[in-house]
Amino acid sequence: MRLALFKQGKLLAEISISEGVVRLEVVPEKINNHDVIAKFERLNVLRQEMERMDAIAQLHPALLQRCVKTAALLPYSFPTNEDEGLGMSSSPLEY
After folding, report:
1. Contact 18, 12 (CB under 8 A)
2. Kind of pairing, strands 21-24 and 10-16?
3. Is 84 helix (H, G, I), strand (E, B) or coil?
4. What backbone phi and psi angles, to 5 degrees, belong to 28?
5. Closest Cα to residue 25, out of 11, 37, 35, 15?
6. In Å, what is the CA distance from 9 to each residue of 4, 5, 13, 31, 55?
7. How many angstroms separate the CA atoms of 45 and 33, rounded?
8. Counting beta carbons within 10 angstroms of the beta carbon of residue 57, is it exposed (0 to 12), middle (13 to 18) or buried (19 or more)?
9. Rounded Cα gap, residues 76 and 35, in angstroms
């Protein structure tokens, strides 16, 4: 599914659910706003940190545990009812 929003023939926003892409066009008068610039810089730092953590996790998942405070990630690691239907027999540690 793809949704695009145009104003006077110019693309303002595009959302593609199937591709997992969201594109937003920032209007020129907002680019000079210091708050917007600071937020873009912060988002860029967060994106770089996510890429770094992804690379670490791909090398060896155990390294990720050493680099990340687990308490901060606990709400995101175990969504409600995530483990329903899993039994102990599905554990990779049981042979």
Report:
1. no
2. antiparallel
3. coil
4. -55, -35
5. 11
6. 11, 10, 12, 20, 40
7. 19
8. middle
9. 28
d(C-alpha 22, C-alpha 64), whole Å:
28
Six token digits for residue 82: 């995530």
E-strand ranges in 8-54 read 10-16, 21-24
Domain residue limits, the chain: 2-69
Q: Is the pLDDT assigned to residue 1 strictly greater than 50? A: yes
d(CA 53, CA 46): 10
Instruction: Say if residues 47 and 41 touch (Cβ distance below 8 Å).
Output: no
Under 8 Å between Cβ of 20 and 32: no
State pLDDT tens for residues 2-36.
666 666 666 666 676 666 666 666 666 555 667 77
CA atoms within 13 A on the CB side of 34: 0
User: pTM value?
Assistant: 0.36
